[in-house]
Amino acid sequence: MLITLTMTAPDEATPATDLGFLLHKHPERLQSFDVAMGVAHVCYPEATPERCTVALVLEVDPVGLVRGRKSGPGAFELGQYVNDRPYAASSFLAVALGNVFRTALSGRCDQRPELAATAVPIEVSIPAIPCRNGAELIERLFAPLGWTVEATPVPLDPAFPEWGDSRYFSVRLTGRLKLAKALTSLYVLLPVLDNAKHYWVAEDEIDKLLRAGGDWLAAHPERELITQRYLKHRRAFVRSALAQLAEADDTAPEVLDDALDEPVVTELPDRPEPLAMLRRGSVLAALRASGARRVLDLGCGGGALLHDLLADTTFTEIVGTDVSAHALELAARKLKLDRRGERARDRITLRQSSLTYRDRELEGYDAAVLMEVIEHVDMERLPALERSVFQYAKPATVVVTTPNVEYNVRFPTLPEGHSRHRDHRFEWTRAEFQEWAGGVATRRGYAVRYLPVGPDDPEVGPPTQLAVFTREEAA
């Protein structure tokens, strides 16, 4: 059983052999790992500055897998011994990927963190994948993740073309992706294509699926099919997985809570007020102008805005949500909820929720705030965020703030080309933000207007951009 992954040099300054750093496997070494189904070998058949290929070869012991087991009534007695397990990519290969490249799957690389966070040119080759539904399903599963798919059917016997094709395909995937996303797509989708996991599916498989697919599964058009097949059509598990957050409870806190770190820049040049204070003031002014009384703070983090909302009795019901339980614990401590009176505690609720899933408990509110949130979401997951906030929750007013990357040149302590926060997935110009916000407004039935936050520089604009969306039927 074989799979190869090739990275070409993403730029002149980065050799392709840095793939070894990303995978934590040295290109000059042959390494072998004992896994439940046999032995996995990792080697590099090609390692040049321009192009580097890693091969994972899985030696499956089909006899060892079934030694001591009994076939069920009516089962093909030799079926446990005569099969495709040693040759065709399946859940066995996915398990080996997870064991051998565990750190790379999580997106961590201490020696090349900037490369781990960068989309690089990747090519994956798998000589044999079983798929009874044809090449069209392979395309439907991989293409939405940014892969270009070439799926060639394998003939039953090249010597007898009249026999037709088998249910196996030789697959080549090419694209520019983060390595972690490339690996997690393989980890999840190989068993989905095979549609026959070779081990018992227990409840912990839900966490594995949500953890591996957390960065892309929610927005995938085939997420229900993926979930059903990955969990072997166990209805209770499928329902639970579709309802849960993308991030599993045992995700490393330092991975989940990067957004809680302090930003690189907090002060405006020659201005006494911190930018965060100006931002919260602008958001509160927009909420008051809308007449909102029941407010959602989506992605509330440590609860700075919640503190200001709670201090204003105009807001009768306040809900702070975050995907991170740790962030919510921090917010509760900062708000000192255990020391506040019953009336104040009754006005505020902290709730764990993901912005990329529909949460029916968040529907029907007057206003929602996404303050410095969207830039912490991967670009490909923004459509899922758009649906959950503007299509399902559908508050009368939505206030969104995000950094203006054009203003970054005015921060003397911010190195050129660096983001304001290490967890930012992007920072937009004014034109880019208005293109996104205008598209959302058009698609979801809102009007939108834009306001500056902080000094509006005549050349580069304000440090923070703010958009106020008003649902047209509520206007």
From TrEMBL:
Superkingdom in the source lineage: Bacteria
Entries under Pfam families matching the protein: Hen1_L (PF12623), Methyltransf_12 (PF08242)
Entry similarity comment: Belongs to the methyltransferase superfamily. HEN1 family.
Signal peptide: none
Keywords (A to Z) from UniProt: Magnesium, Metal-binding, Methyltransferase, RNA-binding, RNA-mediated gene silencing, S-adenosyl-L-methionine, Transferase
E.C. number: 2.1.1.386
Domain Methyltransferase type as annotated: residue spans: 296-395
Protein name: Small RNA 2'-O-methyltransferase
Stretches assigned to the Hen1 N-terminal domain: 1-246
Reactions that this protein is recorded to catalyse: small RNA 3'-end nucleotide + S-adenosyl-L-methionine = small RNA 3'-end 2'-O-methylnucleotide + S-adenosyl-L-homocysteine + H(+)
Cofactors demanded by this protein: Mg(2+)
Species in which this protein is naturally found: Tenggerimyces flavus
